[in-house]
Amino acid sequence: MSDHQAIGEVVLEVRGPDGGRRFVRVTESPFLIGRGTEVGNHVQLADRRISRQCAALIFEGGAFHVEDRGQRRGLFINGERAEGRSLVDGDVISFGFEDSYEIVFRASAASESLSQLLTRIERLASGGLLAGSLGKLNLLLEATALLHSQLPLDSILSSMLDHAIAITAADRGGLLHLDADGSRHVRIARRSGGLRLPAESIAPSQTALRMALEQKSTVITEDLALAGVDLQAAQSIIAQQLRAVVVIPLYAMDHSGETPVAGEELLGILYFDSRRPAAFSKLDRQVLDALALEAASILDNARLVQRERERQRFEQELSIAREIQQALLPHGLHDFPHLAVSGLNQPCHTVGGDYFDVFPVGTDRTAFLIADVSGKGLGAALVATMLQGSLSGMSLGTDPAKVFNHINRFFCEHAEVGRYATLFFGLLDRDGRLEYINAGHPSPFLVRKGTAEAVFTAGSFPVGLVAHAEYTSAVVQLQLGDTVVLFSDGVTEAMDPEDQEFGAARLQEVLSALGDVSLEEMQKSVLAAVEDFTRGARQGDDLTLLLARYRAAAEFAPTNPAEAAIHSSA
């Protein structure tokens, strides 16, 4: 970008002590500021306390900075003494007096519309179209100044309507808002003289509204007596004795190209009417178009801000949900007298529908399980949390099959939840007897003496899918050192960049090739194999692993006599 282009994009907003505002384009460097014109100031400030040669904006190295050229009380940027730093959009330059001028440096995309507006006005002026119309142009400048005010949105929009009514000489005007279902209602209503109207007092011409929306352009009817048959016959126009109507659709700006253009998303509609015929000059129409563009910009910015706030709030809620979900997973897994365990859960989104759990059932049995709720995200996570709470009740000794039957009926009776879950639940005794229920989950592998086999063949439907499903348990006898490898389909259905699945057969090969390794090494090896296979491809499913290794209770018998005495007394 050349120096000339960069300078041409900067506008100064000059705020007077009386509350007035004006905008000045920065056209050269140095750009002089001070009291009086005899020293060549580009911006003159009518305050005797400000020096004649006060300050200058200097453009160097692709940025502006302000230079003190003799202001007796000093120069300040945002309340702090100016020390030569580069100016950024929104910086406020002041002169040491609370009741004096302030100059706001405008150089961002938000001020681009002001720069473009000034350009349009300059072109109008060069074409000789401003004679007798400076008052309307001043109204337009005042209205655009509202873009940078800190007033509430409805206050800004009300003032914008007041300016538009003054420019159009209308009796009244309103801003129509669109609901999610497409229905329209009046959000703000004003009448001439800057007075508020009840929103229900305006009944906009539906015919004129429909014409503007169908054409996606402004409809201006200066004398309805000369308008088309449709408008002349419109009931609301006849009932209200209207003679002039202006309808301006406001569309969101599409910034994908170099120049913002009206897109397809309708933000609102400006509506004005009068009982007197109107006469709009070419300049009137251009000023009205410019004002409508600024109104659309205000609504568009407000919409984007609201969406960003909603996104941040949703992300915060998801973060809290993730913290809760992760807190409910077992942490610092410890070995039980007859069982060593290791596990992990990696959601593909902030929260997921996979989970695992390990908990004692009485003194001689330990339960372990893995579950995968259909779907992704927050809904799946909520169902997974509910399942976890239900199944944790088995720690009181409830029969697993009865619990599964109850949970299945509950989910099926609440079919509107729209979720089901696959589960594998195991209950291991001290003597190696493993009672299990497989509710539609991928069969775990049993790793025995370096060989991985799928031996858990008995199974039933996922929980919450078939109302009449009956769950029964099956039994497998484990041997010392046997490891049960439970996994979700995020492991076997992991995809490489060519959309090939990792697959159960590949997982079986990985497990069989490991030999006698610790659970931690086994877990790391499976993860490494999956990561090597996927080669960084984005995954669409949660990944969960749970490894449970049977250890004979005798291996944990205390060798210290004192410790043995403690255990026997317990």
Explain this structure.
It is elongated, with a radius of gyration of 37 Å. Residues 1-5, 109-113, 124-132, 257-261 and 554-570 have low confidence and may be disordered. By secondary structure, it is an alpha+beta fold. A hairpin with a 6-residue loop joins strand 15 (244-254) and strand 16 (261-274). It is built from 14 helices and 26 strands. The strands form five sheets. Strands 2-1-10-9-7-8 form a six-stranded antiparallel beta sheet. The protein has a six-stranded antiparallel beta sheet with strand order 13-12-11-16-15-14, with helices on both faces. A five-stranded antiparallel beta sheet has the order 17-26-25-22-23. It has three domains: 1-107, Tumour Suppressor Smad4 (Sandwich); 135-323, Beta-Lactamase; 329-556, PPM-type phosphatase domain (Phosphatase 2c, domain 1).
CATH level-1 class of the largest domain: Alpha Beta
Oligomeric state, counting identical vs distinct chains: single chain
Report how far the terminal alpha carbons are from each other: 82 Å
Strand count, sense and barrel status of the largest sheet are: 6 strands, antiparallel
- Provide the helix percentage: 25-40%
- CATH topology of the largest domain: the name is Phosphatase 2c, domain 1
| Spatial shape | elongated
CATH superfamily of the largest domain: PPM-type phosphatase domain
The overall strand count is 26
Please list the strands of the largest sheet in the order they lie side by side. Answer: 2-1-10-9-7-8
Radius of gyration: 37 Å
- How much β-strand is present in the residues? 25-35%
Number of domains: 3
Structural class: alpha+beta
Number of helices: 14
| CATH architecture type of the largest domain | 4-Layer Sandwich
Average pLDDT, all residues: 77
Low-confidence stretches: 1-5, 109-113, 124-132, 257-261, 554-570
